[in-house]
Automatic annotation (TrEMBL):
Keywords: Oxidoreductase. PROSITE patterns: PROKAR_LIPOPROTEIN. This is Phytoene desaturase family protein. SUPFAM superfamilies: FAD/NAD(P)-binding domain.
Length: 589
């Protein structure tokens, strides 16, 4: 994208494709910098994959099991406050990140506090003292390093001095970072003598990620220990609606049930969009925060691809392991409280149990007693359980019949995410998943099966229907593999643009690597590039129309120990990157 010349008219209007967190964030920051914006979203609600839905009197929250940056001491927190995502809400933090239960019933509690984790692991296996102490020391180092991680400004826009300062801030942590990014967790775990620890370490982040080095495990556990990776009151859809409210409050417009079929281009300049109903809308700038493959190969017809993007979206995208896996999810609404149910447990499954779960990648399943996270989303004296496993889309495609997504007119309005019929075999597979998981949990929680009142199964094809995402992946490129690294280098070098196409930018999870905070940061970053190209100074401000969030620390498995409420620093403190210990020692309520 060539920068605007002094004689060129100032670009003032922007169309954003997609109302997920990347699109909403782009809209917020564009409005903060004076651009007129309209978001077109094909669903009836905001958030994209950051969503939830109602079944009977239960709300099933699909997305947030932890939200990076929802506490002070890092730049991620400032972004959420600028987007109005957390204000006025309670942030809930468990003292255990995940429990991994072996096939023999033994369990590893991955406490977020490294001292407590070290004590627990040494009690389980004194013979593994060396790797245990090394791992816990790495978490301690990352607790301090989190404040140095850059989220506010893209590296591609940093000057030489800024880059040197950024690199210098990592010097105290360099050795730990270097070691943790060059050693795969699958290899690190092999150092343990205890067979349960050798397997369990691969499942700290709920599922097994064969391509992940040790670094993201340090990053997540350190964030959790710093009370900056809890869950926000109200859940995923409420978070998206908070950002939508911030966007509308800034004067932005959003149109739902509006599916973009084509990005309009004239003389190699993006000039607007055409919707599925034939309507056209024009703007000075078009930003796509939609699925990457849909954007470049369908909306733009594959016309603006250099060698890098052509390889990404015509060959690498279909190679095994390049995209994040899809999920199969089972929600259960139970008319009975299960106070003994842990917030988060990964079960290592036997062959018989895994055989019931269509498409399963690895014999494991994550089970969350979701009411521990979001009690407000279920009736009193009831329980919501959320069970998931990584799944390829191919086995589900082999079973289904008919279209994966279908737009239909209902009450005079075209809708794009309505249910589609997938056929008997597909439905039978979903029933096997439901019955297999319910039977598994009934063995561990007496009375579980009899208490089930509502059940809902989603597959990677469900994700395709609601968001149009390629192969049901979530969230996009798989970190630490060739596709992700290639895409990151291309954007670092050239910005979030496509070669030869002016007035067009990429945003959202397909223009970055990672989950919700990366999508939110991508919106900030793309507007910084837009402002750079227009010769404007980028500006952003924290939303001060509501009070800052509060924080609740919830113990796991020790009902006698009360939850602790902590008082975070003032909202403005987020920009100063205070020591995260200040959050943990706040006054008790």
């Amino acid at each position: 994208m060539a920068r605007q010349t002094d004689t060129a008219p100032r670009r003032e209007s922007m169309i954003i494709v997609g109302g997920g967190l990347g699109g909403l964030s782009t809209g917020c920051y564009a409005r903060m910098n004076g651009y007129r914006t309209t978001i077109f979203e094909m669903h009836e609600i905001p958030g994209g994959s950051c969503t939830g839905w109602d079944r009977s009197d239960f709300t099933f929250d699909w997305c947030i099991s932890w939200l990076l940056g929802n506490g002070p001491g890092n730049e991620m927190y400032q972004i959420w406050l600028e987007l109005g995502a957390l204000q006025g809400k309670e942030m809930r933090h468990f003292d255990v990140f995940n429990i991994v239960r072996g096939r023999d019933g033994r369990a590893v509690h991955f406490y977020s506090d490294p001292d407590r984790l070290e004590e627990h692991l040494l009690a389980l296996s004194p013979a593994d003292a060396a790797p245990i102490r090394e791992f816990c020391a790495g978490i301690r180092t990352f607790r301090r390093a989190l404040a140095a991680y850059p989220f506010l400004k893209p590296v591609g826009l940093m000057g030489r001095l800024e880059r040197w300062r950024m690199l210098a801030s990592f010097v105290p942590y360099f050795t730990t970072i270097r070691r943790s990014i060059t050693v795969l967790m699958t290899d690190f775990a092999q150092r343990f003598r205890d067979p349960l620890l050798r397997e369990a370490f691969n499942f700290i982040l709920y599922e097994k990620h064969p391509a992940f080095p040790v670094l993201p495990f340090y990053f997540q556990l350190a964030s959790h220990a710093n009370h900056a990776a809890g869950v926000p009151e109200g859940g995923s859809l409420a978070l998206a609606r908070s950002i939508e409210e911030r966007y509308r409050g800034l004067g932005g417009e959003i149109t739902y049930n509006a599916k973009v079929e084509e990005i309009l281009v004239e003389r190699d300049r993006a000039v607007g969009v055409r919707l599925s109903d034939g309507r056209e809308f024009r703007a000075d700038i078009v930003v796509s925060a939609a699925d990457g493959h849909t954007t470049v190969m369908k909306l733009l017809k594959g016309q603006y691809l250099n060698d890098t993007y052509r390889r990404l979206y015509t060959s690498l995208i279909d190679e095994p392991g390049q995209l994040s896996p899809g999920y199969v999810s089972l929600f259960l609404g139970l008319r009975k409280p299960f106070p003994e149910g842990d917030p988060c447990t990964t079960y290592l499954l036997g062959e018989r149990e895994a055989a019931e779960l269509t498409g399963i990648r690895c014999p494991s399943m994550n089970v969350q007693f979701r009411t521990r996270h979001y009690p407000e989303l279920a009736p009193e004296d009831s329980t919501v359980v959320f069970a998931t496993y990584f799944s390829d889309i191919a086995p589900w495609r082999a079973l289904h019949e008919g279209p994966e997504q279908s737009s239909r007119v209902r009450r005079g309005e075209e809708l794009h995410t309505l249910p589609v019929k997938h056929g008997r075999e597909y439905m039978a597979a979903k029933r096997r998943v439901r019955n297999g998981i319910v039977a598994f949990l009934d063995e561990r929680h007496p009375g579980f099966k009899a208490a089930v009142a509502v059940a809902d199964v989603s597959t990677p094809l469900t994700q395709v229907r609601y968001t149009g995402v390629y192969d049901g992946t979530f969230p996009g490129w798989n970190p630490f593999v060739e596709g992700a690294e290639t895409m990151e280098e291309e954007i670092k070098k050239s910005g979030p643009v496509l070669p030869g196409l002016s007035n067009f930018y990429l945003s959202g999870v397909w223009a970055t690597i990672g989950g919700l905070i990366r999508a939110a940061a991508a919106g900030r970053h793309v507007v910084q590039f837009v402002c750079r190209d227009d010769g404007l100074e980028f500006t952003a401000e924290i939303d001060r129309t509501a009070p800052p969030p509060t924080h609740l620390v919830i113990p796991v498995g020790r009902p006698a120990e009360p939850a602790r409420r902590t008082v975070p620093p003032a909202v403005g403190a987020a920009a100063r990157n205070e020591d995260s210990e200040s959050v943990q020692t706040g006054a008790l309520a």
